[in-house]
Amino acid sequence: MADPTVKRNIVVVGGAAGIGREIARQFARSGDRVAVADINKQAIEELTADSEGSIFGYYVDVSSWESVCHWADDLIRRFPAIDSFIYSAGITNRRPFLEIDWPAWQKTMAVNLHGLFYCLKAVLPLMRQQQGASVVIIGSGSAITGTGGGVHYAASKGGAFGLLRALVAELGRKGIHCNVVAPRVIQSEMLDRLYPDPDDKQKLIDQIPIGRLGQPADIAALVRFLSQQEAQYIHGQIILADGGRTFQAD
Amino acid sequence: MQLELFPLANKVALVTNGFGPVGEEICRRLAGAGANVWLHGQVEEGCELSDTMAAEWTALGVHLSPVRGTAADRQTIAQLVATILEQCGKIDLLVNNCQAGQRRSFHQLTPADWLTTMQLNLDRPFLFCQQVLPAMLGAGGGTIVHVSSTAALTGQISPDFAASQSAVQSLTKGLWHEFHGKGIQVIGLAPEAKEAGAEQSGQLAKAIGEMVLLLGTGYGVYLNGEILTVHGGIPNG
Ligand SMILES: NC(=O)c1ccc[n+]([C@@H]2O[C@H](COP(=O)([O-])OP(=O)(O)OC[C@H]3O[C@@H](n4cnc5c(N)ncnc54)[C@H](O)[C@@H]3O)[C@@H](O)[C@H]2O)c1
After folding, report:
1. Sorted alphabetically, which InterPro entries does this protein's record hold (chain A) (predicted)?
2. Which of A51, B34, B156, B179 lies 20 to 30 angstroms, CA to CA, from A154?
């Protein structure tokens, strides 16, 4: 077992709201040092203010390589060796395929897919190269089903799968294990934007065998498990966390 | 079952990113089956299509549409689709070849490389689908085939390539989900990831050409939404 008295350095990109925020809070509560990077300055401030100094906030726009480099230069000062890296930044703007205009397509790709690459490119060199270091990417079940946030969202989230597999050999040899967690419907700001009508939410719940929406805490618990050394043998996996929705029989 | 000699007579096909062994095999098969084929593709800067090659394609009845530069040129794509619709009145089959890539490590890969691969393998198929789908929907149907690769699952060739392959497979699923009730078939082919020139890559290209022909003839309707792995019985791993 890992020594619980040793503080680990955790980085959560997209950690100022929703699933990422819960991940950051859970790590901080268990005594780890957490860096949260996000584009939402106000949300970062609110989160760090009530974290009693265990969460450090950073502004970054993941869709800009310059912004990511700038952030990484800053990060290295307080987080010279990172134990776990989590990517939870994401956007959705669901619309029919023929109404996805070029800026909407580009923006979705830039945040959900290119931003993931930029952050990995900048942060992997700062990671501790020892057994038990880890990467967890928050993907989406929509990459598997094609449903959810629209075709552009599905495509952008799908990119993480091939990228993950391409990193397995290289990162494994450095002691870093990496996985994708793919949720489907988790109660968050993002979900509220996608399904503002409570009736639509109820329809979703009716499709989930476990009988409720997922909570950020469900995903955070899984991410924490995957981030520790005990989970090292789970490497290169895409783990669907959906309350059974994807495989329910009609 | 009686197979027709020219099962694609009167059909119009558009093959994208097609200057390469796989794209050429696809075009040869489709043209050989009687289709009116339009071939769009990347030609390296400073490198011309040879006259003999152009003559060969013209003899087969394939219209060539070479482009330069890697940026997803929306206007060129819109113009090409408009020209085809003007001349032929419809597009029955769109084949997006999404296999641009080269071997490199994560360490070697730059953000510019990453974006180039995504432009070729992901942005372009998106733009072609958006341009072609309204015509297909208007005509009551059509088939879209995305040729990706097993690298989506195995991570072979390079991180950018593998990521673009899994992304395009999710694009395939998303399009299928949205359009399957409207007469549109969207199917993925995932040949084993091989570098051009590798042993058996010629056979693999032929196999892809044959699969596209099959799907183009409409024999594949029950495969709608599937991503079919094509590896010649020698899987990886
Ligand atoms: N909520 C769900 O049902 C659900 C389902 C499947 C997958 N996901 C995925 O989970 C992840 C988290 O989603 P969430 O539900 O917590 O959403 P959220 O909107 O609550 O949180 C996303 C966070 O990413 C940040 N972000 C957006 N653009 C950014 C940028 N350019 N640079 C830096 N940060 C940026 C936002 O500010 C926000 O804090 C996303 O990747 C999403 O695709 C969510």
Report:
1. NAD(P)-bd_dom_sf, SDR_fam
2. B156
Determine, for residues B173 and A124 on separate chains, whether the beta-carbon distance falls below 8 Å.
no
Q: For A146, name the nearest residue in chain B, comparing CA atoms only.
A: B174
Strands B184-191 and B142-147: parallel
Q: Is residue B32 classed exposed, middle or buried when 0-12, 13-18 and 19+ CB atoms within 10 A define those classes?
A: middle
So what's the ipTM on this one?
0.96
Residuewise pLDDT in 10s, chain B (237 residues): 567 788 999 999 999 988 888 998 999 999 999 999 999 887 765 556 667 777 888 888 888 877 765 555 888 899 999 999 999 999 999 999 998 899 999 999 999 999 999 999 999 999 999 999 999 999 999 999 999 999 999 999 999 999 999 999 999 999 999 999 999 999 999 999 877 667 778 899 999 999 999 999 988 889 999 999 998 776 554
pLDDT tens-digit profile of B29-86? Answer: 999 999 999 998 877 655 566 677 778 888 888 888 777 655 558 888 999 999 999 9
| A·B CB contacts under 8 A | 141
User: Which atom from ligand 1 is nearest to the alpha carbon of A112?
Assistant: 41
Rounded mean pLDDT, A5-25? 95
A151 touches chain B (CB under 8 A): yes
For ligand 1, the distance from its centroid to the CA atom of residue A92, given in whole angstroms, is 8
Distance of alpha carbon B98 from alpha carbon B122, whole angstroms:
7
Q: Residue ranges per domain, chain B?
A: 2-230
Q: A189 alpha carbon to ligand 1 midpoint, in Å?
A: 8
Q: State how far the alpha carbon of B149 is from the alpha carbons of A55, B111, B165, B181, B204, in Å.
A: 41, 22, 6, 26, 11
Rounded CA gap, A66 and A62, in Å? 9
The nearest CA of chain A is from the CA of B146 a distance in Å of: 13
DSSP structure class, residue B93 = E
B-facing residues of A in 86-105 (CB < 8 A) are 96-98, 100, 102, 105
Per the CB < 8 A criterion, the answer to whether A161 and A143 are in contact is yes
Task: Give chain A positions within 8 Å (CB) of B129.
Answer: 97
Query: How many angstroms separate the alpha carbon of residue A73 from the centre of ligand 1?
Result: 23
Interface of A with B in 158-177 (CB under 8 A): 158-170
Name the H helices within A61-150. 65-78, 102-109, 115-123, 142-145
Q: Do B159 and A166 touch (CB under 8 A)?
A: yes
